[in-house]
């Protein structure tokens, strides 16, 4: 594509739009499930993952709003999403430090059940979004959100097993830190791609 104002092929936009709606609904529902479950289980990892689900749902909604705009403006929105992903990483680090000061181990069974449910939900989302992972920065940021969630869910399940076996909050904290790193690195990747696209396709 030689001009930022050239529209995407309608067929591709239609498929991407459908995938985004599915992912948005899944993430909104899982935000409620994990937020309530994480609060009940006193789990930093579940609580952090619930905020990630909420952020992704908002990001998918934003992506739907800019599908018909030029590459420059799609990249601009992706920049906001990239910064949000990085900010999420910082927030999770803060929440993990707070959990450490409290010293209360989470409830492992609840963690495990919700972690498995979240993993299934994210596999479905990732499956719909996989075909668009190599698109522009907006599509790429959407794929990274889904990919990071899937990795995070596997880590939550492993943390639940660790908490169950040791009775310690350390596994929960380690997973929360892993998720924060995913947010920081994912945000960096998106921001880096956005800068290049905005330079190559000025307004």
From TrEMBL:
The chain crosses the membrane at residues 20-41, 53-73, 85-102, 108-130, 150-167, 173-191. It is a multi-pass membrane protein. Residues 20-196 form the Cation efflux protein transmembrane domain. The keyword NAD does not apply. InterPro entries: Cation_efflux_TM (IPR058533), Cation_efflux_TMD_sf (IPR027469), CDF/SLC30A (IPR050681). The keyword Repressor does not apply. It comes from the Bacteria. It is found in: Membrane. This is Cation transporter. It comes from Acinetobacter albensis.
């Amino acid at each position: 594509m030689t001009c930022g104002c050239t529209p995407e092929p309608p067929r591709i936009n239609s498929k991407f739009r459908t995938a985004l709606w599915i992912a948005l609904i899944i993430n909104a529902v899982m935000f409620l499930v994990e937020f309530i479950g994480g609060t009940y289980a006193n789990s930093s990892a579940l609580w952090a993952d619930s905020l990630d689900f909420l952020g992704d749902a908002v990001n998918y909604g934003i992506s739907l709003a800019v599908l018909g705009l030029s590459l420059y403006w799609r990249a601009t929105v992706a920049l906001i999403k990239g910064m949000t992903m990085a900010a999420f990483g910082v927030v999770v680090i803060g929440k993990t430090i707070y959990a450490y000061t409290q010293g209360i181990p989470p409830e492992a069974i609840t963690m495990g059940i919700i972690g498995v449910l979240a993993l299934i939900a994210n596999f479905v989302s990732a499956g719909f979004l996989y075909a668009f992972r190599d698109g522009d920065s907006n599509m790429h940021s959407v794929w990274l959100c889904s990919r990071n969630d899937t990795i995070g869910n596997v880590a939550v399940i492993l943390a639940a097993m660790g908490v169950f076996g040791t009775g310690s909050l350390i596994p929960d904290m380690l997973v929360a830190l892993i998720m924060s790193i995913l947010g920081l690195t994912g945000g960096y990747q998106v921001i880096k791609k956005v800068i290049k696209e905005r330079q190559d396709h000025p307004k």
